[in-house]
Please model this.
Amino acid sequence: MTRILVVDDEPQILRALRINLRARGYDIEVADTGAAALTAAASHLPDLVVLDLGLPDIDGFDVIRGLRGWTTVPIIVLSGRAGSEDKVAALDAGADDYVTKPFGVDELLARIRAVTRRLTPTAADAPAPSATAAPRVGRHTVNLADRTVTRDDGAEVRLTPTQWAMLDKLLRHPGKLISQRQLLHDVWGPEYQHETNYLRQYMAQLRRKLEDDPARPRHLITEPGMGYRYQP
Model:
């Protein structure tokens, strides 16, 4: 059973989400402050966090950064801040998705399903014959089967589920251009068609973690207006 930590300081939202998500088979824990959320996550790590940015004690961005300091658990931001700058900042801090208030429960459930799909690879994700060898990105070796990234000095690089899903898609098709629409569909789900800012933010995150010079990438290549490509 997927365990979800819902963090919001509005009691009616906490109650509505607890009822709706439990009715659909999720195990729910709630927190109404950032400190309570961090404590709950540390004591019993959830499979997914739904997080409001406007908390009474700690800004939601700091909660994201606090979680990202030690876990790659998926985070869906649920916020009344509708500006693109807030969305970009949340994705940059490490969030996996962003839902604007007011929201429909069906939309949130679709986003949750999209994230949990990225946590449970299917048979279709099995390595293709050309992808059985561990590909290299800069000074890093990527093991697609074990879902690990190891630097040449032996240090392991942690990736979030969304970062993994995007990297996995590119590395399984070396040299091939993957369109923006295809990446959005395969990583986030069929309801995502125009959120190209997600692609830009996550590609920037991957380059910072894997490329020797993120400003001049040699392996994770952008084809402007078209998509992205892994260059071995």
About this structure: Residues 96 and 162 are 6 Å apart (CA to CA). The two ends are 39 Å apart (CA to CA). Residues 122-132 have pLDDT under 50 and may be disordered.
